[in-house]
Amino acid sequence: xxxxxxxxxxxLFRTQLARLQQIAxxxxxxxxxxxxxxxxxxxxxIDELLPAGMEMVHGPGCPVCVTPVEIIDKAIALAERPExxxxxxxxxxxxxxxxxxxLHVKALGGDVRMVYSPMDSIKIARENPTREVVFFGVGFETxxxxxxxxxxxxxxxxxxxxxxxxxxxxxxPAVEMLLxxxxxxxxxxxxxxxVCAIMGTSEYEYLVNKYKVPIVIGGFxxxxxxxxxxxxxxxxxxxxxxxxxxxSRSVREDGNKKAxxxxxxxxxxxxxxxxxLGEAPKSxxxxxxxxxxxxxxxxxxxxxxxxxxxxxxxxxLILQGLAKPKQCSAFGTRCTPESPLGAPMVSNxxxxxxxYLYRRHSGEADEEAVSSGGGA
Amino acid sequence: xxLSIPGKLIEKSEADGILLGKVQFGGIVKGVCMDLLPExxxxxxxxxxxxxxxxxxxxxxxRQNYEYMEMAGMLEGELAGFPDDARPxxxxxxxxxxxxxAMPRDGESS
Amino acid sequence: MxxxxxxxxxxxxxxxxxSHVVMGHGSGGKLSAELMRDIFLPAFGNPVLNELxxxxxxxxxxxxxxxSTDSYVVKPLFFPGGGIGELAVYGTxxxxxxxxxxxxxxSAAFILEEGLPLETLRKVVEQMAAAARHAGVSIVTGDTKxxxxxxxxxxxxxTAGIGVIPEGVNLGPxxxxxxxxxxxxxxxxxxxxxxxAQREGLQVGxxxxxxxxxxxxxxxxxRKAAPGLxxxxxxxxxxxxxxxxxxxxxxxxxxxxxxxxxxxAETVRGxxxxxxxxxxxxxxxxxMIAIVAAEDAEAALNAMxxxxxxxxxxxxxxxxATRPGRVVMRTSxxxxxxxxxxSGDQLPRIC
Lengths: 376, 110, 351
Description:
- The complex is a heterotrimer of chains A (376), B (110) and C (351).
- With 376 residues, chain A is an alpha/beta fold.
- Chain A folds into 2 domains: 1-322, HypD, alpha/beta domain 2 (Rossmann fold), CATH 3.40.50; 323-370, no CATH class.
- Chain A has helices at residues 10-23, 35-43, 63-66, 69-79, 102-107, 119-127, 144-157, 171-179, 193-199, 202-211, 222-238, 257-266, 296-299, 315-319, 343-346, 351-358, 364-372, and strands at residues 29-34, 55-61, 84-89, 112-115, 132-139, 162-169, 188-192, 215-218, 243-245, 267-274, 278-287.
- In chain A, strands 4-3-5-6-11-10 form a 6-stranded mixed β-sheet, sandwiched between helices. Chain A has a 5-stranded parallel β-sheet with strand order 2-1-7-8-9.
- In chain A, helix 5 (102-107) links the parallel strand 3 (84-89) and strand 4 (112-115).
- In chain A, helix 1 (10-23) runs parallel beside helix 11 and helix 2 (35-43) runs parallel beside helix 16 (351-358).
- Chain B has 2 domains: 4-57, Roll (SH3 type barrels), CATH 2.30.30; 60-92, no CATH class.
- Chain B has a 5-stranded antiparallel β-sheet with strand order 3-2-1-4-5, with no helix packed on it.
- The longest helix of chain B is centred in the middle third of the chain and has 20 residues, at 59-78.
- By secondary structure, chain C is α+β, with helices and mostly antiparallel strands.
- Helix content of chain C is 30%, strand content 24%.
- Chain C has helices at residues 30-44, 47-50, 84-97, 118-135, 190-200, 216-225, 239-251, 266-275, 297-305, and strands spanning 64-72, 78-79, 82-83, 102-113, 138-147, 155-165, 181-184, 203-204, 229-235, 254-258, 287-292, 314-320, 327-330, 336-338.
- In chain C, helix 4 (118-135) links the parallel strand 4 (102-113) and strand 5.
- In chain C, 52% of the residues are buried.
- The interface between B and C is medium-sized, with 23 and 32 residues.
- Strand 3 of chain B pairs antiparallel with strand 8 (203-204) of chain C, so a sheet runs across the interface.
């Protein structure tokens, strides 16, 4: 597949790694922001190949993981109503709310439909004019325009039975929260390439200038990530702090203007709670005044639910890159993908889930695998 | 939250006021919405995320970046002391791998 | 209601022609008999079945008997490469074959939803009959029940199969030991991706179809070529990962597989990329793994490749003594990652 395979080329990867080995002389601490980047790093074992004691800490780039428990409970409440069809991305189906998850609600008779594209919710709404269709729209800026389309099309087509349960988060405020924390160890950042493909690069320019931290906009394939790491290492070794664009084939300085306009029309910035991180001001998006009629929370009078997160879960530390999943006392035992305690275990992109899937630490986790396995 | 895959736009059309397109990924073709990228032309490569084309792949940028990586890798090994951002003046177009060539696998059907 | 037509000279009462399954088809009366006569017998007909007893009776060759059962609920009922009929026959045949048995007799029980077009049923049954002939088995007994509309998704099939294991053949994970080689019979993920492509309305090139196929000949070839054959397993839901993990856990051994050696067709890869799926976890219906003693690996691989269903067989890894219960994959980058057993279904992701 063109523009994909080339960036998985092992030979090219190794030449970049060789460059890194030449350049890197110090144990720099870097962070990749996006969950998709974490996935690649852990899947290919790239973070284990870094020289000079360099370390990758995994950032909060998983909108699924950071969706507040309250929102999931609201989605579940909607799904449990007989007249509602809840339409959701696959990623959200297994995320636990305070009591259950969408998959279980579906099993018990709730009309929950999994889609690949938000376009499908428009189709479902038209095919079911007597039912209320709610699209559970989560995501970063990459997904926001597509989710926005649901409300935009609903308005244009006059669809009265379609609404949006929105849980959108913005990356730069979350990154800012991490960088400004007194316990921040991150010295260089790989910015999320697809977010930047939509939003452009200026927001990260601001972060570089304010925090004097080198930022490289990176892609998602092994070669992309390795090149981004090389670029960061070079900056750090040379004492520079600039914004560079590794993913220039997909990211332009201005981003996608049309998508940005759509986001600005349909959404407005608001404060947002991040599961595991707490509240970050101006880090989320909700439907704007003109589109408020499509807000499912308002349409269905969903009241606020306050939930405490399990005490054993150290997701706050993991999402900030202050701890690794292996260091959690519950990792792989009381907290697994089947029964997650916290945000980073719930989806494939979460740091804990990625570690669990690809790299469990040996010891009691292995014993458990042997004793619980077997049988078709 | 960003799973986006590059594919070739092979057709554009419209239905119900919605701009549509057909994008080819490897051996499959998928219908996508082009409303976020109406200016994309048939024949260009686009990134598709949740059924929407979100940006075009800049072929020239891709090529330049790729060649640079290849050359820089070689330079590190062969010409120590050469500055990292040196770019070769002669570009060998043959060196850019095509789809499927980069990762040959045993038994994989082409 | 259409004008009644005479459908049988033997029955004194004229019965209306029916085009859909109704509750009466499951009651064991005349409608059930009609179904038997018009659909099942013409397709499956064989001396045992034709006796129409409550049970099938036959003599088995001497030896240990292998017995397996499975239910089939796939949706859509028909897809490129086959349909529920093929799955229902080949699935059970393969469960027997990978145990070293020669599959012989199948039972077929149907749960039909009221309102299912009889034409659909006929098509499924004819596919089953063709599959049974191709696999060299007979469907000798069965049952039909009908449930009310809304209580069943069109058509469910349960097949059970009996086969005979030749003298001296004793396969299973208990035989597996460190140093053994793991052989895979061909490219993975074809069935699951075909179904997904159908559901998502993907236009696919002609080469994407379910790999549903009987593996009897393939299994026989490996048995004959490799005296050191330890065990075989067919890959179904849960994909290659499940098969490897199950054996690894049962046998309490580790496994080291090479990512590069696992064949994945280009189209399958494209669909997986698009939906964020890992081919290791995608369903197959005509693939198996064989674990053989290292010294037999070459002969076994050649034997597999000489059979059509194993033409693209590859050696994909080795059994190890370290990290029992763990399947470790050497990535194409030379790093190791664990192939974990998936909990539940693999869901397409956007993240």
